[in-house]
Amino acid sequence: MSLLQEEREIILSNEHVDNFDFAEVEEFVKNASKELFISHHFKTKNKMLVQPRGGFPTYKKQFALNEFFVNANVDVLPLTIDSNTRLNDYATAKKMLRLSEENEVDMLNGYPLVNHGYRTTRKMITHFNKPVSLRHGTPDARLLIETAIASGIFEIEGGPITYLLPYSKNFPLDKAFLYWKYVEKVCANYSLLNEPINRESFGPLTATLVPPAITIVIQLLEMLLSLEEGVKSFSVSFSQTGSMNQDIVAGAVIKKMAKFYAEQINCSDATINLVYHQWMGAFPTNKDFAEQLINMSTVIASMVGADKIITKTREEASGIPTKEANAATVANTQYTLGILNGLPNIVDPEEEEILTLEVKAIMEAVFNDPADTLWRKVFNSIKNGTIDVPFSPHIINHNEMITIRDAKKNIRIIKCGNVPIPKRCFEYEKAQCDLTKDTTSIVNDIIHDIGIMQ
Amino acid sequence: MKVVTGVVGNDIHVVANRLIELSLDARGFEVFNLGVNTYLEEFFDAAVETGADILLISSLNGEAEGWAREVKLLKSKYKTLDEVVMVIGGNLVVGTADADTIVPKYKKYGFDLVFHQVDLNTGLDTLEAFIQDKKEEKAS
């Protein structure tokens, strides 16, 4: 038996798993409908796929939500997982699920997939026969993704960096890399049986003034970590920055760089997709304004040329949205996409060049780390601040980089910390900003820049 | 002057915490930022370890009150913290309540300065004035 299979058997002999039948699951994946694979849709569809967010504790409510989405002409269904499951606390999730079922009050902020189990969940997923994307935030997702794939969920979001730095204060980063290596391997192995399982990285990170160079570097590194384990379909992603031009430039650079670095490790046979997140920062409380913002995000996603868009709702500022509001965004987004024709092709060569130089310089510094494997190089680079994510709560993050918006609302780096931004690029970034102010006014500007859409 | 700061309890809201650090730094304080998700013991231990003059606790999710109740009891177990200026700020209540009811409550819990939904720079101006007054008091 391989080491991986030994580890899988340990993971799946968890007391919360009801007799995981490896052979039956393999047979299921092998014969599963192509419709369930988002990788198949990416290959065959010419339109941008629309995917909302959403997860409810009970089977009944999740089923009802999916019905609403399907009626709104959804392309990809979400399955958002509750926070207890994300922290591997299946016992609490179980208790809260029972309370939710008995009292008709939602005691969980998502669907506790491990507790529902794959036999039950598979019924729902094969019933709707739409691709499902697993949305979570789990540093150790080994049991969760085994259950997901066995249920017919063939897109797995996340990664060791993007699911840790924005969400955790002290979960050990080196452990996250190893747990995600397992995820990549399992996804790669299942990909040999039918259409590929798609892996997606979480580009928004903290969604707070993250400069495109940092976002893109982390997207590329998670892509490489995934491809080197044999994953054949991968989505890089980012969220609306606040400047349409910066989004278009970021989209162009990330596409080119993803192709370039995939080729460098002889993985050009893998399909790389681009996902765009509608505005991930603080939303206006005025629900009509929220709809305008969402609509504008859809237009920008089209300008960027995204393969998939992930939607927000008019109720974003007030909490978990109702299924009605959630489905309405799907229908509205599909409508906007349908009428957006004859888009101009905008290219900003200067901005593209600057961003490309920044990305390449940081990537080179990561590769030059003396460690023996890529994950260790990345680990060291985060630890020594070569990669620095603004506003990450994690203790390993350096927090030395400072960013603000320029007059056109582009996010600019005004302090690099240890991030090796080339001198020319740094001078360019600073030249776009008014740096004559004192720190107190800069802090006020940052507060304003974070709440730009409110 | 040395300041220990951080967000109390199981609260992961990090944005204001970073801005507090930046602002204190800009005003010339020596900042020891414990970040989000910090327990009272960690604050007091850090204050002892650094020899802090000010302990600035913040909260956004409103659960600070549950923790603040224990400040006096816990602080009394440390011998060297009597002179430390105790400050708390942010959103100090779950739900809504006005500052007139919240401020006296937290003062009773052992805080010298209490900022409920007060603008960051206004709060820090008040802190600086408070320290100045204290110095002058000592001198005279």
Level-2 CATH architecture of chain A: Alpha-Beta Barrel
Indicate the CATH architecture of chain B. 3-Layer(aba) Sandwich
User: By CATH's scheme, which homologous superfamily of chain A applies?
Assistant: Methylmalonyl-CoA mutase
Q: What composes the largest sheet of chain B?
A: 5 strands, parallel
Q: What would CATH call the class of chain B?
A: Alpha Beta
Give the distance, in angstroms, between the N- and C-terminal Cα atoms of chain B. Answer: 21 Å
Could you say which overall geometry of chain B the principal axes of the C-alpha atoms support? globular
What oligomerization state is this entry in? heterodimer
What series of H and E elements makes up the topology of chain B? Answer: EHEHEHHEHEH
- Extended strand count of chain B: 5
What's the Cα radius of gyration of chain A? 21 Å
* Whole-number mean pLDDT of chain B: 93
Strands of the largest sheet of chain B, in order across it? Answer: 2-1-3-4-5
Reported by name, the CATH topology of chain A is: TIM Barrel
Structural class of chain A: alpha/beta
Strand composition percent of chain A:
5-15%
How would a crystallographer describe the biggest sheet of chain A?
Answer: 8 strands, parallel
Our count of domains of chain A comes out at 1
Q: How would you explain this protein's 3D organization?
A:
- The complex is a heterodimer of chains A (454) and B (140).
- Helices cover 49% and strands 9% of the residues of chain A.
- The mean pLDDT of chain A is 96.
- Chain A contains 18 helices and ten strands.
- In chain A, helix 8 (118-128) crosses helix 9, helix 11 crosses helix 15 (349-367) and helix 13 (287-304) crosses helix 14 (323-339).
- Chain A has a single domain (3-339), classed as Methylmalonyl-CoA mutase (TIM Barrel, Alpha-Beta Barrel), CATH 3.20.20.
- The radius of gyration of chain A is 21 Å and the shape is globular.
- In chain A, the strands form two sheets. Chain A has an eight-stranded parallel β-sheet, with helices on both faces. In chain A, strands 9-10 form a two-stranded antiparallel sheet.
- Chain A has helices spanning 3-12, 22-31, 38-44, 59-71, 83-86, 90-103, 113-116, 118-128, 142-151, 173-191, 212-227, 244-264, 287-304, 323-339, 349-367, 374-383, 423-431, 439-450, and strands spanning 49-51, 77-80, 132-135, 155-157, 198-200, 233-239, 271-277, 308-310, 402-405, 411-415.
- Chain A is of the alpha/beta class and 454 residues long.
- In chain A, strand 4, helix 10 (173-191) and strand 5 (198-200) form a beta-alpha-beta unit.
- With 140 residues, chain B is of the alpha/beta class.
- Chain B has one domain (2-139): 3-Layer(aba) Sandwich (Rossmann fold), CATH 3.40.50.280.
- Chain B is 45% helix and 19% strand.
- Chain B has helices at residues 15-26, 40-50, 64-68, 71-75, 99-108, 120-139; strands at 2-7, 30-33, 54-59, 85-90, 113-116.
- Chain B has a five-stranded parallel β-sheet with strand order 2-1-3-4-5, sandwiched between helices.
- The longest helix of chain B has 20 residues, at 120-139.
- The mean pLDDT of chain B is 93.
- The interface between A and B is medium-sized, with 20 and 15 residues.
